[in-house]
Specification:
Blueprint lengths: L41 H30 L3
């Protein structure tokens, strides 16, 4: 069935895809930096180290509290 739209742009074709040699991603989120990596800064490395230490201490503390609870201590 032919289109009855009076908008001359309604039937415009989508832009041609990039040549295969470019291999550029398309779609939502391509300009957000998602999927790209860069080396971590010294500050980020230090923050990661401190976070890991805090998580280990929290885990050990939780284990100790659990053992004390089981043994009837406080």
């Amino acid at each position: 069935m032919p289109s009855t739209s009076t908008n001359p742009h309604a039937a415009a074709a989508a832009p041609a895809p990039a040549p295969e040699s470019e291999n550029k991603p398309t779609g939502a989120g391509v300009d957000t930096g998602a999927g790209s990596t860069r080396p971590k800064t010294e500050a980020e490395i230090e923050a990661d180290r401190l976070y890991e230490e805090a998580m280990e201490e929290e885990q050990h503390g939780s284990s100790l509290n659990h053992l004390l609870t089981i043994q009837g201590g406080s």
